[in-house]
């Protein structure tokens, strides 16, 4: 039976359950006080809807948000082998990606460019931007279906090889990515995660890792589109940025790029098709202060719209899961 303290319904319309809205009926209702009832409800609904938006509850602080997220039974994860700049707010809580406000971040599943990723991800809006700043989301199952059989088979059979070059003023440093200044720690991490690495003459680091292009959800059995080829590929950069970078460095020294698992180049036309599919499946809503969005990271991708003015959205992740990529 639904708790009388809140309502539940699709945020947009009945044939699009993403995100499912759970809304407090009265102002001032503490999110943490509702945790047992919300946890039972979300455990039922998250695997169906893929994402739940909690609205109208009192949260206020990152620490209280953290208490709510840990209430689902798993320790929060640190942001290891990250691909974007973030700052630690409190234990297990990070800022959302610290890209300039004018930049658009396309849909993606968190850490789908690796063999290890969180199954759960939460976003807490402490301050909604006055203009823009939405966190668009998209159904990874629907993206998988819409991409089409030919592209799915090609990507799934070949896999994807992500290449990264750290630091040198072009991307995040290896010290920040691996949370250490000790090269031996980097070697141990890479060896444990199937990542090949090369220390370059200039002191920089290059890594390569072959990962999945599609995946199967461990609980639902659903096939999902699960990679970041459309983000890592050099074609994702604006043309003038791409040309400038390639004037500065050789292709192998680009901050990031992606190939098929055998090292052969990805077709830009296919990546454009994939970007079009993601745009078609994108669902957008405007943040309100104190909103909490909880996603199943395999079932639902997320992004960020450009914004103006102040915006503060923090993130938590939990439930590590790994793929066996051969």
TrEMBL record:
TauD/TfdA-like domain mapped to chain residues: 15-316
Keyword Cell wall biogenesis/degradation annotated: no
Co-factor requirement: Fe(2+)
PANTHER family referenced in this protein's UniProt entry, alphabetically: GAMMA-BUTYROBETAINE HYDROXYLASE-RELATED, TAUD_TFDA-LIKE DOMAIN-CONTAINING PROTEIN
Source species: Pseudomonas versuta
One Pfam assignment: TauD
Keywords assigned by UniProt, alphabetized: Antibiotic biosynthesis, Oxidoreductase
GO biological process terms on file: antibiotic biosynthetic process
Protein name (record): TauD/TfdA-like domain-containing protein
GO molecular function list: 2-oxoglutarate-dependent dioxygenase activity
């Amino acid at each position: 039976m639904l708790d009388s303290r809140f309502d539940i319904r699709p945020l947009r319309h009945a044939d699009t359950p993403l995100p499912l809205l759970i809304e407090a009926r009265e102002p001032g209702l503490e999110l943490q006080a509702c945790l047992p009832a919300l946890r039972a409800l979300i455990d039922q609904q998250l695997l169906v809807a893929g994402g739940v938006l909690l609205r109208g509850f009192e949260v206020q602080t990152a620490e209280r948000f953290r208490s709510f997220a840990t209430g689902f039974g798993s320790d929060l994860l640190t942001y290891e082998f990250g691909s974007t700049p973030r700052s630690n707010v409190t234990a297990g809580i990070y800022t959302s990606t610290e890209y300039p406000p004018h930049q658009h971040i396309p849909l993606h599943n968190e850490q789908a460019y690796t063999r290890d990723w969180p199954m759960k991800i939460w976003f807490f809006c402490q301050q909604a931007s006055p203009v823009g700043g939405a966190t668009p989301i998209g159904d990874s199952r629907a993206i998988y279906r819409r991409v089409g059989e030919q592209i799915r088979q090609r990507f799934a059979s070949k896999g994807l090889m992500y290449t990264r070059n750290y630091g040198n003023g072009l991307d995040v440093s290896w010290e920040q990515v691996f949370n250490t200044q000790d090269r031996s720690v980097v070697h141990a991490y890479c060896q444990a995660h199937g990542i090949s690495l090369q220390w370059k003459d200039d002191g920089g680091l290059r890594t390569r890792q072959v990962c999945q292009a599609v995946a199967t959800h461990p609980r639902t059995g659903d096939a999902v589109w699960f990679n970041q080829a459309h983000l890592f590929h050099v074609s994702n950069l604006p043309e003038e940025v791409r040309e400038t970078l390639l004037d500065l460095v050789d292709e192998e020294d680009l901050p990031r790029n992606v190939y098929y698992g055998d090292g052969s180049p990805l077709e830009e036309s296919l990546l454009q098709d994939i970007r079009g599919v993601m745009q078609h499946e994108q669902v957008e809503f405007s943040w309100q202060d104190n909103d909490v969005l909880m996603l199943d990271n395999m079932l639902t991708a997320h992004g960020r719209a450009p914004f103006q003015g102040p915006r503060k959205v923090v993130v938590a992740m939990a439930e590590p899961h790994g793929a066996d990529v051969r």
